[in-house]
Amino acid sequence: MNNLLKTFIAILAIINFSWIAKADYPEKPITMVIPFGPGGSHDLNARVFTSIIPQYLGNAIIVKLVPGASGQTGTAMVAQAKPDGYTLLFTHNYVDQLQHHVKKLPYKPLSDFVTVGRLNYAAACMIVLSKSKYQSVQDVFDAAKSSNGKLKLGHSGMWGATMVPMAQLMSWGKVNANLTPFKGGGPMVKGLLAGDVEAVLHFPSVIKGQGSKVRTLACGAKEKSLGTPPTFEELGFTGQIGYMDRILMAPAKTPPERIKILQDALSKLKDDKTFKKFMKRLGENMKFMSGPDYEKIRAEKSNNYKSLVKQMTKG
Amino acid sequence: MLESFFNSFPLILGSGNFLTIIFVIALGLLIGLFVGALPGLTTLMAMAIVLPISFFMDPLVGIPFLIGVYKGGIFGGSIPAILVSLPGTGASVATTFDGPPLTKMGKGRKALETALFSSVIADFSSDIVTILLIGPIALVALLIGPPELAAILFLSILIISSTSNGSVGKNMIMLAAGLFIAMIGQDPIAALSRFTFDVFELRAGVPLLPMLIGLFAIPEILINIETKAKEFVKTKLNLKKEEKLTWEEFLKLRKTILRSTVIGTTIGMIPGVGQVVAAFVGYAAAKNSSKTPEKFGKGELEGIAAPEAANNAVNGPTLVPLLTLGIPGDNITAILLGAFIAHGLRPGPELMSEQGSIVFAILLCMLIANILFLILGYFTMPLFSKVVTIKKSYLIPLTIIFAFAGSYVFRHNPADLYFLLFFGIFGYILKKLQFDVTPLVMAFILAPSLEYAFGQTLSLGDDNVLMYLLSERPIAALIIVSTPVITWKLFQRSKKLRDVATSLTSSQVKSS
Q: Does ipTM top 0.90?
């Protein structure tokens, strides 16, 4: 009898509990749009964290890749979605804070979206072939100067994550160079290996795979795994450069209590063992930043990009 | 290198791994096969979805699993192309030329088996070539930069247009139309909008899949409806018993399969060209060397074997830049790269020299996948060929549903349905006016890469492109110089073939 009662109570509790859980957000899987193609670093980071986050969130996050028009198609899709917390956007700072300075967009990134959190960032490094005669960033600047701006440098797409910092560096060094675009990071590295271009910017996780074939001249952040090359800041550049923030955004009108739930779940990742293990394998850091903290630097970054764009499109 | 090759065997055979590997490859193949066979669900999507599963497996289990999905998916796309003229990818477009006519003759199963055997044989041979020549292939990959790629793509477009059906004038119109449609959207280099007329839906360009389904499946459906009364009663009788491919028929195909394998493997070594070109060039070459080219497009088994063998032969060599240089050649290899990295293995020169045996073990898994696929495919083909034996009155609405659902599922974008309708009607009109849409599709698929490579060449050449080509890019210069010669030869040959074909048909008309 006692047992039966216990079972009965247990069943009631489960029904009751699951009923409560259902009433709470999230009661169904959340869709997370990535406005880029499959196989890139956003896709990879997303696959890792979405496979671990359900235990903290109570429901799954489903990745939906919507590439096109340099991120505009996917971003527009989330901007138009119902702001109920079931459609999120996983993007980066150049799409979020720079694009509206160069293009007419059907949405306003800064006011239409709010940051849930920054998962991590990747800081670009300048690399050359190890047989190259350039030993420092200054050598590259000098070569650019003496070649009358004909030094061949590569980037991975207009107004993208390696093009913007390259332009920032060139304008800081007051030099011009021949910036040739490549269709993404892979082809850009191939261009460097084949000698089509002489220096490129790329992220540490990729540079490690090239081993002794390339030399790292300087990085956006301290990179112990690359033999601690100098940072651009140590070389005299003021401010952050080459940071690609992987940020999770929600439509601005999403109820704040739902954003809070998302933020809590996201912040728990940094202590998760499996998450740490995978991030280490990917060669990515876990420099998490909370949504409110990121909001503080977001507008400022956007302003910096604005003046850079003005300077670049003027000449 | 040799040592790491032999060390790779125990990795696969030892410690009870072997059965697990066999199991996951087979599972992957089946997943891929079904996903590939459903229009709108791409192999790429399927791989992206199962990628996290592979994270939690042993590397030598997880990666073969993905390879299974990849191989199964690529072949799966040919099934709807053969049965109902629904190409799921650019690579299976050439298969729609002879597949549906064969299906109509009640030879659907024969066509599917031809596709299976040619795919597996070509894939297997190209994998062996890849294992033997992995070093040299990696070198070739580095020799092909933007100028060479631009020259090769330009030549490919010309070759395919000049060997297509229909008159030269019509082909050139289609070629120009394809180039124009490809220009809608953002220009690939500076990312500025062109020909979008401020319509947001056009900003990302015209989507490939709705366009392919529209151009190939919708006209086929409409024509089927037109001829319903006349033909379908007749074909239904044939479909009750699906014939298998006979040994004699297979032997007749061996030359075609061999030729296409060589073409596909060579094209696979050139990064950035890919399966689409291989399939079309394979088809064109088979037609050109056939004694009965007039049968192509009307239900010729060689017309299935040629593109299928060629596009599968690309698979082996495309993995080389990934494995040896750490550079993914396309989206699919980019996902494989992800699987490697998540296991702490970063493909590149270091992995090759330090853990070369793992690289070879993966290549061996590809060989195993081919053998497994032959068996699995052989037993699932009758199942698929049965699909079209249902009454035509069900098949047509079913195809329409698949065409629309497939176009929508691709990007979840309602605008794609308009694209589908537009290209459906456009394709129907073109078919009635006897235009061959091949040059249009080819130009559309290759134009963005061509434009990109061309733009890069201009940028690299700075203000003197000619000097740059002559002094630093001898390979590109050579290809450019030989382009007019090759095109002229091919054009003359296909003109001769066309003349023969017309005289044959006119003599047939006379005799009947």
A: no
